[in-house]
Each structure stands twice: as structure tokens, then as C-alpha cells.
Write a structure and sequence with these properties.
alpha/beta, four-stranded parallel β-sheet, 17 helices, 11 strands, globular, binds tyrosine, binds iron/sulfur cluster
Amino acid sequence: MTTERDPDQNDFDFAEPATDQSFENALEKARDGTRLSVDDATELLATGTDADGIDPVRKEAVLELADRRRAETVGDEVTFVANLNNNVTTACNTGCLFCNFKDSAHAFEADSDVDHAGFTKPPAESGAVVEDALEMGIYEVCSVSGLHPAFALNAEHHEVLEGYDDPASEVNYKPPEAYATDPGTYLEQMEAMSVGGVHLHSMTPEEAYHAKRGTDWEYESVYRDLADAGLDSAPGTAAEILVDEVRDVICPGKIRTDDWVAAMEGAMAAGLDVTSTMMYGHVETVEHRAEHLEVIRDLQDRTGGITEFVPLSFIHRNTPLYRQGVVDSGPSRDEDELVVAVARLFLDNVDHVQASWVKSGDAHGLKLLNCGADDFMGTILSEEITKRAGGEYGEYRSFDDYVEMITAIGRTPVERSTDYRTRRRIDPDDGPHGPRLGPRADGTPMLPNRTAGGDGDPASADD
Ligand SMILES: C[S@@+](CC[C@H](N)C(=O)[O-])C[C@H]1O[C@@H](n2cnc3c(N)ncnc32)[C@H](O)[C@@H]1O
Ligand SMILES: Nc1c(NC[C@H](O)[C@H](O)[C@H](O)CO)[nH]c(=O)[nH]c1=O
Ligand SMILES: N[C@@H](Cc1ccc(O)cc1)C(=O)O
Ligand code: SF4
């Protein structure tokens, strides 16, 4: 990873971060537990906008306060979930410049001879993937996908979309017959994946938009239909940076900030929990990060339905943003640490902040647990988004890996449900360890002979 990037600088027409606040005052407010303003968060994220680069002494002061706040709010437990990622399709024409997960949907057409490394799983195949994982003891499936042009919510939605004069250009729609593999409808995918008592975590705001495109349906009613088909909670990705001038650069084809908020409110109005994310470390300034955090905090003030905040460190290597020379790197480790810490201090209404071994690796992921984070993601079994972007930390962590890592930093390993309401403290001495909260989980280790894919020995430091 790199440390040369200066978050105080930018090459775009964005205003240079500057505030009426001082770093010291912002730190004092964080120490008192006074609610922080966007200016305060900007100062803390930049370790002062008065000087270039990150000041190591000031950074340590912010991390220490955040770690203390974490201990006071959620204690010493480090949670994780026994889950599986099932991406349904990589076909997507949205064209986000930070993403190398997607493949152009044209390549998936029945008469195309374009080679591609992507996939589409019909509902039966998605269901089979979940069934297999249930046998291993998992209890959550996290499913996020490309916006396949043949996807529609249900048969009625197909009819509406077919009714347009030029569906491909007007509503990003082509009928399933045009493709080599039919992805089915969103409702069919939900029904297929919601089996055996698993918790289905799916349908990001961008996917919900796709599931209602070309109609005047409300997000709430779409999420209600999805929930009736088996959806339990929604991932708050597609957030990226919730400031439109940044979205105009990195994802001009995506919904705007207002629409993202409307989708999340719709999901919560339909009775679903949601998570929240921020993908940072590309073109945005520290001020944009602070503004993003305010969007999340305001939303949580109104709803209370956000279970966790998931900082997503931008993985740059294979992405258009890097290949086209728009950015030189992703965020530095210092920036990762400050984002976690300031999220903990600023989001006084969101209980849980996640550290990601997928994005940061084991060693730095553990460090982030000492900067304000209290959740360490999940077993996930397979991972495509970060891997395709050039991530190098593998796709799976076992319960034994988790127990070893979390006890190594003196914290308590806890298996949790997706909504954090059910928790099981794990006795480190009572190994080997496996999930017990799943409908078919009896404590048997999930994949006893497998080490973390691509990361070598999971117990060894990776940097
Ligand atoms: C790949 S999309 C899939 C779901 C859906 N297409 C959407 O955009 O919501 C899920 C999320 O992955 C994250 N992501 C994509 N590429 C990434 C990268 N190179 N580094 C870090 N996160 C990335 C983004 O936050 C994005 O919203
Ligand atoms: N699945 C990925 C996650 N996070 C999943 C978490 O386990 C999440 O907390 C859960 O799904 C809901 O509680 N994070 C990543 O960076 N990459 C993933 O693939
Ligand atoms: N972890 C996010 C979802 C997510 C999925 C895939 C990713 O690459 C990143 C994040 C959530 O639980 O809401
Ligand atoms: S982030 Fe999502 S919407 Fe954007 S290109 Fe990737 S898969 Fe498509």
C-alpha cells in the first residue's frame, strides 16, 4: 500500500478543504463527547487543514479517542458473522469508474462472441449455492450484483419495460431472450436465496432503483415486495461518496445522493434493517468524507435502522480510475485509520463500525479494531468485487482464524447475527471453532482444511 497520497490536495475543481475550526478545538469536542460538526470531522480527518499531509502525533490523538469511545459504547467484543457472498451477475452497463467487478452487458448477449470472465446465475443456481453453504453452518447470504439489463422486479415490471419505444436506451432494458443466460426476476432470485432460515442481505439502493426503473413505484413498495419474497435486510453500498460533485466524476451513471437516501428510507419504511458504507480514497477530499458522514448521521437520526457503518477502502489496481491516470493509488493506511476513527467519533448514533480484512488484510484489519472499529466482517467464503479490483487478501476466514486473530489483540471473539441482536461469546480454549447461530450450525468448523485463499497462512502477518 502507499503513503504518498496527500488527502489535503486534489487535482479536480473541488474546493480545497478549509474550515473555521481548529484541529485542537475539534479534538476537544471529541474528547468531551460533544456532537461533531462537518468542520470538526474535516479537521480530524486531515489532522488539521492548516498543514499538508497527516501529522503522526495528531493522528495518534484521534485514534486514541476513537478507541476509547469504542470501548465505552460497545465494550471489548469483536463481532463477526458466518456468511456467504453470492453475486448473481457481473453484467452491468452503469460504468462506474472505480469498479472492475462488472462486465459490459453486451458480452452476455446470446449472439455475442465477445470473451468475458463474468457470470450470471439463474435463480436455481443461486439457491444451490446458498443450500451448500447452509450445510457448512452459515446463516447470512450477502448478495450484490451488476445491473443486468434483463433484470426486472417481476412479470409486471417486464411488461412495463417492454412497453417503452426504445427500452435499451430509455430504461436500460433488454428482454431475457436476448441473453445467453436468463437472470430471472429479482423476486425469483430472492425466493431462491431465502431458504432454510438463512438471513438474506441484498438489494443495494442502486439495485432497488434498477428494480423500479421506468415505473412510478415507490422504493418502499418495491422493498416490501422484495421482503415478501424473502429479503431480510439491505446493504448500503452504492453510497460511494454521498456528494454529487464527486459522483459526477466517479459514477456519473449512478443514482444521486438524494435517491440513495430515498432508497434507504424506503427499505427501512418496509421494515428492513440496512447497513451504511463509504468508499473513499479516490478523488474526494477530506471535506467530502465529512459531508458523507453527515448524510449518514442525519439519516440515522430520522430512522434508527442503520446497524453498522462499513468503510470501504478503495482498491485501485485494476480500475478505470487508475488505468486512465485519474488517481495514482488508493488511500494510505493512515487515511484508513482516520476514517474508522472519525466515523466512530462522528456517528454517535450508529453502534458498529466495521474493519475489513478483505480490503486491508489481517494485520491492518486488526489495527483498525484499535482505531474505533468493533466488527470484523464475516467468513464470506468467496469474494469477487475486491479480487477483481486487484485486492490481495483472499476470500475466506475460518472461525479458528477469527478466534486466533481477535484474542491476539486481547479482545473477545463474538459470533453475531446480521442485526447484532443475537450474539455468542466464543471461548478461545474450546476449539476447534465453528458457527453455532446458523439453522444447521452445530459448531463444526466450516472448511477445516482450507486456509485463507491467496493470503497464505492466515495466522501470519501480511504486511
Ligand atoms: C460492485 S457494487 C455491486 C452492487 C451494485 N451494482 C451497486 O453498485 O450497488 C458494490 C459496491 O462495491 C464497492 N466497490 C466497487 N469497486 C470497488 C473498489 N475498486 N474498491 C472498493 N470498493 C469497491 C462500491 O462501494 C460498490 O457500491
Ligand atoms: N460481504 C462483504 C463485506 N461485508 C459483509 C459483512 O459481513 C456485513 O457486515 C454483513 O453482510 C451485514 O452485517 N464487506 C466487504 O468489504 N466485502 C464483502 O464482500
Ligand atoms: N458489507 C456491506 C456490503 C458489501 C458487499 C460487497 C462489498 O464489496 C462491500 C460491501 C454490507 O454489509 O452492507
Ligand atoms: S459499482 Fe455496481 S453499478 Fe457500478 S459498475 Fe460496478 S456493479 Fe455496476
